[in-house]
Amino acid sequence: MKKFSYFLSVMLLTLVSFGVTSCGDDKDEPKSNDLVGTWQFKAVTEDAAIENLVQFTKDGKWNSVEIVTDEIGVSVEVEKGTYTVSGNKINVSYTEDGKTVTESVTFEVKSNKLMLTYEDMPVAITFERVKDSVIQPYL
């Protein structure tokens, strides 16, 4: 009887241990492959229409195009750099005033939506996946 009682205790302990370790957050970490492609964000304010295109390539490069249309006309700003992914963070690097700048952004990909959350902004910015050809004329 002691052996059976010991066996039951070990089995119960094993089941409890398994249950505790497997009940964590089952949320899958986003993968860098989910990020590859071109993403678009559009906003309209009183003064301007803003379109932001961001492209992440398989080889660790990113391109960003900001198009602002206002009463003066249309301005286009292009930035390029490199990126790495670590968990749910994108680490982007680019050159500004001759210096390399690195920033970290939290991301989540759901279907054809990319949510970016910057440390200094309390709200996520949502981009929609678009064809790569949308950004190509600006690069």
**Largest sheet entry:** 8 strands, antiparallel, barrel
Q: What does the overall shape look like?
A: globular
Order of helices and strands: HHEEEEEEEE
- Report how far apart the termini are: 77 Å
- Strands, count: 8
Coarse structural class: alpha+beta
Average residue pLDDT: 82
Percent of residues in β-strands: over 45%
Question: How does this model look, in words?
Answer:
Strands 1-2-3-4-5-6-7-8 form an eight-stranded antiparallel barrel. The protein has one domain: Lipocalin (Beta Barrel). The chain contains two helices and eight strands; from the N terminus they run ααββββββββ. The protein is globular, with a radius of gyration of 23 Å. The N terminus is likely disordered. Helix content is 18%, strand content 53%. A hairpin with a 6-residue loop joins strand 7 and strand 8. With 139 residues, the chain is α+β, with helices and mostly antiparallel strands.
Write the layout of secondary structure elements.
Layout (H helix, E strand, L loop, with lengths): L1 H21 L9 H4 L1 E8 L3 E9 L4 E10 L2 E14 L2 E8 L2 E12 L2 E6 L6 E6 L9
Antiparallel strand pairs: 1-2, 1-8, 2-3, 3-4, 4-5, 5-6, 6-7, 7-8
Summary?
This protein is of the alpha+beta class and 139 residues long. The protein has helices at residues 2-22, 32-35, and strands spanning 37-44, 48-56, 61-70, 73-86, 89-96, 99-110, 113-118, 125-130. The N and C termini lie far apart (77 Å).
Task: Supply the key terms.
139 residues, 8 strands, Lipocalin, globular, alpha+beta, 8-stranded antiparallel β-barrel, 53% strand, 2 helices
